[in-house]
Amino acid sequence: MKTKLLDKTGKLKKELDLPKNFSVKIRPDILLKVFEAKKLEKMQPQGSKPGSGAGYSASGIIRHRRHVWKTGYGKGISRVPRKIMSRSGSSFNWVGATVASTVGGRKAHSPKSLKNLTRKINKKEFLIAFNSALSGTIDEKAIEKKYNKKIESGLVFDSAILDVKTKDFIITMKILFKDNFNKIIKTKSIRAGRGKLRGRKYKSNAGLLFVISSEEKMKRSGIDVVKVKELDITNLAPNGVAGRITCYTERAIEEIEKVFGRKN
User: Crossing angle for the helix pair 123-136 and 140-147, nearest 10 degrees?
Assistant: First the structure.
């Protein structure tokens, strides 16, 4: 598969051969499976505090026998652990405590922080998912399905694009993407609805992904810049679906072929 190699102003220099990784058949099922596994790796374990709901004294020793101290015999009460609120002689004012069915007691089946969130992924499945995500960055159908419009993606630039100023870089992107320029710049807005009350007040689009080689450096605001050695499925397919607007440098393409190159 061939693609265009552009200079820093967006003009065509020559045609470039892409590695075979970019021409594989997209497998959305395997891609989503691996994406969910990767998402779980970044989740923070959460669970209840050990001993929560049992921070007070509730002896639980209520004998149902006659003629003993603190007996529950003949009082018509169950055997749940209880704490004493007050007493008058040998009569006690008990309140159930500690167990899940009582006020202030522990949670019945609380989440455990020791739960194993990781999932094992086969090497072949991971490579299929990674190559599917790479193919999605240049596949016209995948891009159109994702953004509901035709957008050119998978552009390759020479290394001179790394040295241009941000304003010149934006001018080049406007020339190349035209009316779709607002799709490649990350925007942040306030969410509508009750999500604002649930810790997700803001929402943002994915924006443009610019992949550079491990030896190159680039800093741009408004887009995501990732080195090949840090490239992951969560970058290429942020929601587990193939098709993200992506640009590459020429050296990044060479490194992808060297590191992830297919032999067949």
Answer: 80
Write down all domains in the chain, each with its CATH number in brackets: 2-43+122-260 (3.40.1370.10)
- How many helices (H) and strands (E) the chain has is answered by 7, 10
Pairing label, strands 209-212, 224-227: parallel
Residues 43-78: tens digit of each pLDDT: 888 888 887 777 766 766 678 888 888 888 888 888
Q: Where are the strands (E) in 89-239, listed by range?
A: 91-96, 155-157, 188-190, 202-204, 209-212, 224-227
Q: How many whole angstroms separate alpha carbon 122 and alpha carbon 162? A: 36
In this structure, are residues 69 and 170 in contact, taking their beta carbons and an 8 Å threshold? no
The structure's pTM equals 0.76
* Residue 91 and residue 85 in contact, taking contact as beta carbons nearer than 8 Å: no
